[in-house]
Amino acid sequence: MLHLYYNQRSDTGDFFMDYKLTIKPKPSYLHFIVTGRNSKQAVIQYLEEILRECKNQNCYRILIEERLEGPRLGTVDIFRIVSEKSSAGTGILKAIAYVDVHAENNLMQFAETVAINRSLPVSVFSTVADAERWLLKEESKDA
User: Fold this and answer.
1) Dihedral sign from CA coordinates of 65, 68, 69, 74
2) 5-9, 78-82, 139-143: lowest mean pLDDT where?
3) Between 124 and 1, residue with greater pLDDT
4) Which residues contact 5 (CB under 8 A, 6 or more apart)?
5) CA nearest neighbour of 126 among 111, 104, 141, 110
6) Range among 71-75, 107-111, 115-119, 131-135 rated most confident
7) Which tops the pLDDT comparison, 58 or 86?
């Protein structure tokens, strides 16, 4: 298990933890757990770091378990992040299972639709167990 910490400097010059990314390698995928403060910048940064780790570990099936605290991002921010960041993973990532334990309304389904429309192989789940089952099913399709 690998833990990566990302900090930002506050207006007063003090550092605070923005988020922590934990990587749990599994036999056929990488399980990423993101904890910390929810913000547009944190989401952008952890998505970039996940793609780097996938390339470093040569593993392109992933489970993202987002546990960020605080107000959820709005529809416009979600659309922009997915639209801007999807091109980096298109054609590289083979399966993305996404769980936001604090999801509200249908925003994650909206994010899924935007990502799928940009050719990302993503599916959103309400539990890690459901996401793991989907990843294993997707793996058997490729076998």
Assistant:
1) negative
2) 5-9
3) 124
4) 17, 20, 21
5) 104
6) 131-135
7) 58
> Which has the closest alpha carbon to 67: 28, 22, 16?
22
Using CA atoms, how far apart are residues 4 and 56, in angstroms rounded to an integer? 14
What CATH code would you report for 10-138? 3.30.750.24
Q: What would the DSSP string read from start to end of the chain?
A: -EEEEEEEE-TTS-EEEEEEEEEEE-SSSEEEEEEEE--HHHHHHHHHHHHHHHHHHT--EEEEEEEEESSPPPHHHHHHHHHHHHHHHTTT-SEEEEEETT--TTHHHHHHHHHHTTT--EEEESSHHHHHHHHHHHHHHH-
